[in-house]
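Readers of this paper often ask what the protein records in our data store actually look like. The remainder of this section carries one protein's record, kept here as part of the documentation.

:::
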Amino acid sequence: MAIEKIRLETLQKPLMDEFLFWLETGRSCSVSTRNQRLAAIHAFFRYIQLEEPSLLFLSQQILAIPMKRSASKPMNYLTLGAMKAILEQPDTSCFMGRRDLVLLSLMYDTGTRVQEIADLVAADVRLEKPPTVKVTGKGNKARVVPLMSPTAKLLSQYMSEHALNSVAQRSYPLFQNRSHAKLTRAGIAYVLKKYVDEARMRHPELIPKVVSPHCFRHSKAMHLLQAGVNLVYIRDLLGHVSIKTTEVYARADSQMKRSALEGAYKATTPSEMPIWQKNQELLKWLKDLGR
């Protein structure tokens, strides 16, 4: 049937069920993809039930189709050793190497999303003590993220080299490509991949198979959590709306879980049986008493 001939009455629940089943079996889509398509269908029928009251029952049937639960993927983050190995790769004797070092260091230090880094302009950076950077995140919400001294020093040298601390260039992109346009998300991913590959050649045991720009954000959160930083502060740094979103890092840190469980186990459970349990002759004599 041609798409322009489809009527709302055609979109019955059995057809929706068949479509979702085909996505998973015919198209071999994942459960998350199936749920994304269903979310779009739900949004459409929420609109329909307001605009066409006669189709309210049909809309309610479609809206009752549940999302599927999918197995959560393990969080991908780097150890401190792996992060250090990657940040050691840029060649600071050349122009692009210095830019890349500052870019990757700022990504890790601030825990920002890759698009947030790409959108930074010179005016967003405050190098006076305490140094900060203003990050504009999802929903155009801005947050101020503190900079650690080593990153602030690198950023100060970088901005001086490019005259980005002058009034005339305050609106210029903080990180630019060779054409002096702002780096895109793809450009930042390309830069990261270059140094990840180099670090993997030198330290194959440290670098995982997949390292994305978002992996830097996960790594910063995990390292802060492992250092004992409160989840509320991590939430504010990452720009999460709810603390529940940030709690995923606490659930993912198996090393911290194991340490906590081992501590509790040692504190409550005896290390060995009473010494008389080892005396087999005594145990046999006691058992024979009851015969």
Observations:
- The CA atoms of residues 49 and 57 lie 8 Å apart.
- The longest strand covers residues 132-136.
- The first helix runs from residue 13 to 25.
